[in-house]
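User: Show me a protein chain along with its predicted structure.
Assistant: Here is one chain, sequence first, then structure tokens.
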Amino acid sequence: MLGEMAQRLLRDIFERNELFHDLPHIRKRIVAWGQQAAPVTLDHSATILSEEELLNRLGEPPDAGPLELAKWTIVSAPPLPESYAMQGFGSRLASPVAVELNASAEPNACWIESLDAGWLFLNMGWLAAIGASPEELLKKSALIAKRIARFDPSAARFPAFPRMAEPLAGSGWFACGSAAMAFDPICGDGTAHAVREAILAAAAIRAADRGEDPVALRAHYEARLTAGFERHLIQCRPFYASGGDGPWWRAELHAIERGIEWCRAKLQAHGPFRYRLNGLDLDVI
């Protein structure tokens, strides 16, 4: 699901105003968050599409002419060129489930519900169960379960907690996208953030080519991404502080707090920023 800001960024960068015109749009979200919380309906603006569909819509990149041996590599998927550690803050897993909605499901809506051992997210055709299994969470669901006519159980599970690679850059390379970090789906802005990472990495490469210190540029890139990761954790914190009061919620909230402290320690060691992104280029401050 891509929010309005992510759509705008992709349309601007790729100069494709029509990119999302014919896709289904989410106009409202219905949320029951917290113990015995009553559902609240909020305005929303997002569209639904898969990664494969997005790539197909973007099409092949323009021909850049004869390829030369690259001085720099932007790594968009693991593994990284050097040894690295993936710092993770939480243990929650997600299960994607294909579903069929019934007649009580409002059109152009998505639903979010917190429960004792996790939370559920439902949109048009898909359910995500974070924490316990879909079957366990749906047994206790008051908001989402009654809107599902049928679902296909899936054994697939994947990490849904925030994590970031360390380091994020090295001699001749920058990591971005899934090679750099992963966001919690509760505040998921992963696609837009990956685009911003690529913009910054490309700007750092251009700055290095014009004579700026590559070591300083790599440090700037790492610090900016760490600051973005910290902002994401701060955005996630109130959801895990208010979603429930059981052991699962307390453990995941503690992991988020630990991640915020980790980011702040790294940023404090970095010191003041020396560069500023101006359009698609880095300027010295």
